[in-house]
Design brief:
The protein has 144 residues and is mostly helical. The chain has one domain. It has 6 helices and 2 strands, in the order αααααββα. The protein has a two-stranded antiparallel sheet. α3 packs across α5.
């Protein structure tokens, strides 16, 4: 059974997600950079580590090193309960890029002006082929 239904329940439809996050999940070859961007996105938006990892495994086949790296970022951010700025991510509730802050500072997150505008959803047909859309459709169907 897919975790997509739960992730969308928590964060909204994939169509409202930043395009770079969608690319990292469905198109790009996983790297440490894309892995930490995904970790920041899911951690910042309040998705539990195990749920985020299960969802990532549905989207691509991460190496054990990338799983460890993803997990280490979550664990470090959880340990740093008094840090103001640890990274940045796209906050789905605020609809903007904000600083990733510890739980002690979560209510005081500040917006960050991204270097490039954040593209939302699957608007670029050159990137998101019918096979990607079929994969997402199959993930949705596996919940029913």
């Amino acid at each position: 059974m897919s975790n997509l239904w739960y992730i969308e329940l928590m964060l909204g439809s994939l169509y409202s997600w930043p395009q770079d996050i969608l690319r990292y999940l469905f198109l790009d070859t996983p790297t440490p950079y894309t892995t930490v961007r995904l970790a920041a996105f899911f951690f910042g938006n309040g998705i539990e580590q195990i749920t985020a990892l299960d969802f990532i495994r549905e989207c691509w086949d991460p190496t054990p090193d990338l799983i460890d790296y993803f997990s280490s970022r979550y664990e470090e951010w959880n340990r740093r309960s008094d840090s103001r700025y640890m990274d940045q991510y796209y906050d789905m509730s605020r609809i903007r890029v904000v600083e990733l802050s510890s739980s002690d500072h979560r209510d005081r997150r500040f917006g960050i002006e991204p270097e490039h505008p954040v593209e939302i959803g699957f608007c670029d047909e050159l990137f998101f082929s019918p096979s990607v859309m079929q994969k997402i459709k199959a993930m949705r169907a596996s919940h029913k």
